[in-house]
């Protein structure tokens, strides 16, 4: 008997119980004796009954609020695509009465994260997506979520000790290791490589970026220990004139540098400088298919981009909350995104919004 034609009345007759008893079992309500529950469950198995979870969720007619806690950011950045993804999935599931609240905290500002965490808790959400800040304050936030039985997903940095419902992001160490291996296909004869960073009080932007650097340096130490890696800091919030001076001074001092690496989405800061100063013998490798990076790839100043599907990550986080909270389904706890290499010849074929 096809599931869609199985009525509660049919199940009740098969089990020898009342329709009300079947309804209580199907909806996991109390006041069902063990014997009656066993009869219903046996009948369900014999009839191969599969509940229509989508129809049930729609009929339940409950409102759901998901919160997304992410860093404040500029336009044309990795976080822009995350936002697009979470909004797109929320719109797709709007028939299930899902709403989304995006909350922004200042990176490297513990008080800002704590204030946003409080605002999130005050909203009493049904599920949360959170980009971790410092471990101790993130742990304090997630423990409060756990105490309230609010499922949360970690994005960007995987911290399994916090016991998230799921994680989405790249294996950042492997990503950095891969970046070094790809760069060395064209830079193995170099003496020096520039590593562009954007530091705040001596700290990189995220644990993910730090792990990428660790993976990169690990590969270089094992395979090309003779190549020097020279750090260059382009300060957060700097002007184009400031960046130009730092980069001009660097390249004058290091005329033998032909390759650069950065682990954030701002490779275009160097790429655009190279184009403006007509330095065609220098190339940079970076992350994220944001528009300015893509244009530098087309123009040839960025040789490689590693894509991490930010849009798909945002989309998948909301979809996972939907599956777990609304449909009561099990979800995959660890979801590593693909490590994809984009170059001039294939960048036009990269579909950052592809979630199918």
Record the SSE blueprint.
Layout: H1 8-15, H2 19-26, H3 34-46, H4 53-60, E1 64-71, H5 78-92, E2 98-105, H6 110-122, E3 127-130, H7 135-147, E4 152-155, E5 166-169, H8 172-187, E6 192-197, H9 207-223, E7 228-233, H10 240-253, E8 259-262, H11 267-276, E9 283-287, H12 291-299, E10 302-307, H13 310-326, E11 334-336, E12 340-342
Parallel strand pairs: 1-2, 1-3, 3-4, 4-5, 5-11, 6-7, 6-8, 8-9, 9-10
Antiparallel strand pairs: 10-12
Helix pairs in contact: 1-2, 1-3, 5-13, 6-7, 8-9, 11-12
Keywords: DNA-binding, Transcription, Transcription regulation
Domain HTH lacI-type: 6-60
InterPro entries: HTH_LacI, Lambda_DNA-bd_dom_sf, Peripla_BP_I, SBP_2_dom
Task: Briefly summarize what is shown.
The protein is of the alpha/beta class and 356 residues long.
């Amino acid at each position: 008997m096809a599931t869609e034609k199985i009525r509660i009345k049919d199940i009740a007759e098969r089990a020898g119980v009342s329709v009300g008893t079947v309804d209580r079992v199907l909806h996991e309500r109390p006041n069902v004796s063990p014997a009656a529950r066993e009869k219903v469950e046996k009948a369900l198995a014999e009839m191969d009954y599969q509940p229509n979870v989508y129809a049930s969720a729609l009929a339940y007619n409950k409102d759901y609020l998901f919160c997304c806690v992410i860093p404040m950011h500029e336009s044309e950045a990795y976080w822009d695509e995350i936002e697009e993804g979470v909004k797109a999935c929320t719109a797709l599931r709007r028939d299930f009465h899902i709403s989304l609240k995006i909350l922004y905290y200042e990176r490297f500002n513990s008080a800002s994260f704590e204030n946003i965490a409080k605002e999130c808790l005050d909203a009493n959400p049904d599920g949360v997506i959170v980009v971790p800040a410092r471990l101790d304050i993130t742990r304090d936030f997630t423990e409060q979520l756990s105490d309230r039985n609010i499922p949360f997903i970690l994005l960007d940095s995987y911290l399994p000790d916090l016991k998230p419902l799921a994680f989405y992001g790249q294996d950042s160490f492997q990503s950095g290791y891969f970046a070094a291996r790809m760069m060395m296909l064209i830079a193995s004869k170099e003496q020096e490589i520039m590593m562009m960073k954007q530091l705040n009080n001596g700290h990189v932007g995220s644990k993910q970026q730090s792990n990428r650097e660790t993976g990169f340096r690990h590969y270089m130490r094992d395979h090309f220990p003779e190549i020097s890696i020279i750090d260059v800091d382009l300060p957060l919030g700097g002007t184009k004139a400031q960046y130009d001076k730092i980069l001009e001074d660097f390249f004058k001092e290091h005329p033998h540098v032909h390759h650069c690496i950065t682990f954030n989405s701002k490779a275009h800061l160097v790429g655009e400088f190279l184009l403006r100063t007509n330095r065609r013998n220098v190339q940079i490798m970076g992350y994220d298919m944001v528009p300015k990076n893509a244009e530098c790839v087309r123009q040839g100043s960025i040789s490689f981009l590693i894509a991490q599907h930010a849009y798909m990550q945002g989309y998948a986080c909301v979809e996972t909350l939907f599956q777990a909270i609304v449909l009561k389904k099990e979800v995959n706890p660890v979801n590593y995104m693909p490590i994809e290499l984009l170059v001039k010849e294939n960048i036009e074929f990269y579909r950052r919004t592809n979630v199918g």
